[in-house]
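User: Glutamyl-tRNA(Gln) amidotransferase subunit A, Nocardioides agri:
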Amino acid sequence: MSDWTRKTAAELADALAAGETTSVEITQAHLDRIAAVDGAVHAFLHVDAEGALAQAAESDARRAAGTLLSVLDGVPIAVKDVLATNGLPTTCGSKILEGWVPPYDATVVRRLREAGLPILGKTNMDEFAMGSSTEHSAYGATHNPWDLDRIPGGSGGGSAAAVAAFEAPLALGTDTGGSIRQPGAVTGTVGHKPTYGGVSRYGLVALANSLDQVGPVTRTVLDSALLHEVIGGHDPLDSTSIDQPLPPLVDAAKQGADGDLTGVRIGVITELAGDGWQPGVMTRFQESVDLMVAAGAEVVEVSCPSFVHALATYYLILPAEASSNLAKFDAMRYGLRVWPEEGASAEEVMRATRDAGFGDEVKRRIILGTYALSSGYYDAYYGQAQKVRTLIARDFEAAFEKADVLVSPTAPTTAFKLGEKLDDPIAMYLNDLATIPANLAGVPGISVPSGLADEDGLPAGVQILAPALADDRCYRVGAALEAALLKQWGAPLLDKAPALEGPSA
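Assistant: Predicted structure for Glutamyl-tRNA(Gln) amidotransferase subunit A:
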């Protein structure tokens, strides 16, 4: 394996600037790594080797001419398959969109191209982002590089696994209830969910419009900030986009890396701990809190009583919005079309297509959402859920009066085994217990690796939440914690992961 695949995005950018390598060499190294190990990991649904190398060659030409587009110009990236990519398949992990090639780019993809990042390909995901394990992909499950018999989290397990397996230095994910942060926790990577509206959703195939957010998946906090500054900012094509500049994210990460948190108030959320949380996860979390205290932070306990209702609230609002969004997949305009018999009516074609094209989890959520929105039940279910959502947002407001950031474990457990929870949807949903509140309130959150749980030697994560539009706080505190943990470990956490060598690893 080439050494270039072990470098962070920031290190690759520095190497390119110093003339130590070329974008073509770096991109080819990652394509070789994908060819060697992705047969075992299955992080990618589509690899665009020809396109990535062509983009890399263009980057090298710009560098020679002194016309670079960004700091990350020439550093390759992977993109979750829920984002539209002009000329590349976008399937959302579903048979109903198999082979669909969009005629346009999502805004975040366009910004990647405008910044000069070669796109390696599209990563695997739970179908239409519905899941916490990437087992609900119509194209097969992704495997965790730490243990190929375990899940890589979801719905963005493909992006997290690609970064953890050194197949890509950077990736884009989306987070509706934790789908960037939870995969980050269980694969030992960094995942940031930006403030709602801070990154454009134009070209993102929507699961739940009021919850979805695009964000970075990386190996370090600095890399996350660098990528966030590329994709973030106002977009007139997205009506929910916030029309104001991003805070100084990279500067915040660099400041945090100095390791000084003097004056920062850290709020530990009492509701996100206790029974049902894996002891090893809690041990690593407490160690992280202690390291932040050692860096000068003040710790206070905060109570967010409405958080206990977040899971139920989310699983009413999300299916309701999903059932509305997925109504467009009707076999009439694009995507799969199944003819049940000669002369079948439009309704029969639609029914047969959805039966063949949607997986069980998608069908389950469509049925639940349609029921919650139906006449006579809207106020009792969807309407009440929106009221509780307001209470959760108020809990955050009250908590942020006492603390600058809030912290909790990212996920209750480490990665579970493939197939272990497939027949128990409720157990699967519980994996998002700690991450869902941030999506309901629209606040930013980052997951930083906190170490390996004693019980199984698998990664755990700590979640850092900040007020809306204060993403820089996540990066400052996250980088300070990362620096303290790196000093304690002596090497990046991913260096402790079992090596994946060869296509049958």
